[in-house]
Amino acid sequence: MVSYGGIVNIVTLVIYFIYLCIAIFVAVRHGLGRCSPWICLIVLSLCRLTQVSLDLAATEIYGREATNTPLESGVAILTELGLTPLFMTTASLLNTTSRPKGRRMQWILILLHIPLIVSLILIVAGGIDQNSYEGLSFAATVTTKVGVALYCACFVILIWATAVISARLYLADSTEVKILTTVVLSMPFFLVDVVYMMCFAFESLWGSQRFNVISGDVTIQLCMQVIMEYIIVGLYLGLGLELPDKASRLREHVAEMAEMDYDQIASTFLWKMYETFSAVIALTVMPALFFAHWMLEKLLRS
């Protein structure tokens, strides 16, 4: 008979397989230029599919009494680092906005990927404490705690970036409003997920094992991590299906060009020619004039 945790894993397996198919479809639909958020969702789906498969093998095949430590270590690592593609998806979606975001915020969201990658490396390197296998506690190592703490810092930056961009909502078009609304709606669920990971990493401070990703309470993990990610990924994929695809964006661009009258096109073209000509003058004629002025001054003084 399948255990309670096994049923949760089977449901997760089915849901993330559906999410994986939708994410691949959305990535192809939006084209190579704007598929970064959807590729992150593909990675997250593959990560969760691998995690629940290992967990099923560890619990239903080997049984919790005969613990297979490599499988359990893999489950713990994949459970934690699944937040990395979720963070990157959110940052990439915020970066798709243009006018509300600004140049400075764009660089902040890009540089946010650096601590996320560092935290991923720390979590993979840390795994679970080798001394906790015997008691089935599977405690987080110091390296894992540092990686999860970096997640918390990145989440604070992400909330700040979302608040700043959302405050400029009056500059956004209809597509950007949809993106910002979806990200804002996902933040409470994201917060619960991050809190659960923090509770697991630092549960040794209060001696509880209820938040442990391996030996903890299945219901707590289901409510604070599994369902939260169901909702977040579902919101993001729903947004991806609503956003205009590559062909629609191309048609809109052609229509905008067609609506411009001849004088606008000519003025734009002439202004670009003027800017180019001015740059050429500045780079060639001006140095020659300075040199001629210097030579004339030398001749007059002599």
Lay out the secondary structure.
Blueprint: H1 4-30, H2 36-61, H3 69-81, H4 83-95, H5 103-111, H6 113-126, H7 142-167, H8 174-201, H9 218-242, H10 246-259, H11 262-301
Q: Whole-number radius of gyration? A: 27 Å
Q: Helix fraction? A: over 70%
Largest sheet: none
Our estimate of the beta-strand percent is under 5%
Q: How many structurally independent domains?
A: 2
What does this structure look like?
This protein has 302 residues and is mostly helical. It has 2 domains: 4-254, Rhodopsin 7-helix transmembrane proteins (Rhopdopsin 7-helix transmembrane proteins), CATH 1.20.1070.10; 260-301. Helices cover 78% and strands 0% of the residues. The chain is built from 11 helices and no strands. The protein has helices at residues 4-30, 36-61, 69-81, 83-95, 103-111, 113-126, 142-167, 174-201, 218-242, 246-259, 262-301. The radius of gyration is 27 Å and the shape is elongated. Residues 3-243 form the DUF7702 domain. InterPro entries: DUF7702 (IPR056119). This is DUF7702 domain-containing protein. It comes from Melanomma pulvis-pyrius CBS 109.77. Keywords: Membrane, Transmembrane, Transmembrane helix.
What are the defining features of this structure?
Rhopdopsin 7-helix transmembrane proteins, 78% helix, mainly alpha, 2 domains, 302 residues, 11 helices
Brief characterization of the structure:
This protein has 302 residues and is mostly helical. The chain contains 11 helices and no strands.
